[in-house]
Amino acid sequence: MLIGVTTIAIMAVSCKSQQASSEPAKQGPPSVDAIFTKMDSNKDGLLSKTEVNGPLKEKFTEIDTNKDGFLSKEEVKKAPKPSGKRPQRQ
């Protein structure tokens, strides 16, 4: 009887975890810390134009407000947020 109850409990937990993992994850923009963790390849606390991609690369000059050739965390925090619209492919 104990084995039967344990088996049912394990199955219930397993079903619940499968249900949670099948729901789409809600994603928002990454945090500044996450951006730096991913892109700051030399770990100097700054992002150069060769380290960035996407909207940061496209708007690098605009975001680099002190014009030192690097993006600091403060500059990235103050950067205009992307519109979220993907460019159309041609």
From TrEMBL:
Coiled-coil spans in chain: none
Biased composition (Basic residues): 79-90
Start and end residues of each EF-hand domain: 51-86
Alphabetical list of Pfam families matching this protein: EF-hand_5
Biased composition (Basic and acidic residues): 58-78
InterPro entries: EF-hand-dom_pair (IPR011992), EF_Hand_1_Ca_BS (IPR018247), EF_hand_dom (IPR002048)
Region (Disordered): 58-90
Name of protein: EF-hand domain-containing protein
